[in-house]
Write a structure and sequence with these properties.
Strand content: under 5%
Radius of gyration: 18 Å
Oligomer: single chain
Order of helices and strands: HHHHHHHHHH
Number of domains: 1
């Protein structure tokens, strides 16, 4: 791990989000082997990912944002609260816009167009996720108290895990409306290409605009919580609430232990 600790935060974020993109590609690759995926397994994975992301939002992003506000001489809660709300609203309004666009196409009226909108929805979700990873690594380089490489990596792992079903959620519907396996796979993996790009943007913002670092950290935390609350948790309980709950608890505790004990 020494080599990783010693490289530029831009490269750290790029490597981490290349991993998250790779997991998306693996999920999209399922179109070559399956027509569908076991719902209970997917729900457990989504619950686990939600647990990791909720824990990471506090220990790796929000708590350091509060500490950084104190260090910069700000009122401790103002910028973290504002950034958190803005991050959550960004995801909420992005979803609202895409939901409205999807409804305008009509139910079953044009399945190809609806599938393209699905790709767009997941792609937009991946923007704040990639930025969250970039902000985490940028915060470490900026010396934010409480931010660690372990925490940033675990955040990336949590995002990567939930990207697997997202990749499948894009490629499988496209295949069902007539796309070839290759085109379905390419569209599925392409939905996460924005993650490395937004991660680099997150790092650059953190390193160049240090005065609003608490805002950026909290923005990433709010986006993560919104994604977990709006997408992961509702989807995770469709088949078995108990499995989803166990997955969430395990994900949260694992992230907490790694961040606190090893950080």
């Amino acid at each position: 791990m020494d080599w990783f600790n010693n490289i530029s935060p831009v490269w750290q974020a790029l490597i981490a989000t290349t991993f998250t993109w790779g997991i998306t590609a693996l999920g999209a690759l399922t179109v070559c082997f399956f027509k569908d995926l076991n719902k209970k397994v997917l729900n457990t994975i989504l619950g686990f990912s939600a647990g990791v992301m909720i824990a990471a939002s506090f220990w790796s992003l929000l708590s350091p944002a509060i500490d950084k506000s104190v260090e910069l001489g700000y009122i401790p809660w103002v910028m973290p609260a504002l950034g958190f709300i803005i991050g959550g609203l960004f995801v909420l309004f992005s979803d609202k816009f895409l939901d409205k666009a999807l409804k305008n196409k009509g139910e079953g009226k044009d399945s190809v167009k609806k599938s393209i909108l699905l790709v767009s929805a997941i792609t937009i979700h991946n923007i704040p996720e990639g930025m969250a990873v970039g902000v985490a690594f940028g915060g470490i380089a900026s010396g934010v108290p409480g931010m660690t490489v372990v925490g940033a990596l675990m955040l990336a792992i949590g995002i990567g895990i939930q990207n697997f079903p997202e990749g499948a959620a894009v490629s499988l519907p496209l295949r069902s409306v007539g796309y070839s396996r290759f085109k379905s796979f390419m569209c599925g993996q392409a939905s996460a290409i924005v993650e490395p790009i937004s991660a680099v943007i997150g790092v650059v913002l953190v390193l160049t605009i240090r005065s609003v670092l608490p805002l950026l950290l909290a923005f990433a935390a709010g986006a993560m919580i919104a994604v977990a609350a709006r997408e992961l948790l509702p989807e995770s309980i469709t088949e078995d609430k108990n499995l989803a709950t166990i997955g969430l608890l395990l994900g949260f505790v694992l992230m907490m232990i790694l961040d606190v004990a090893l950080g």
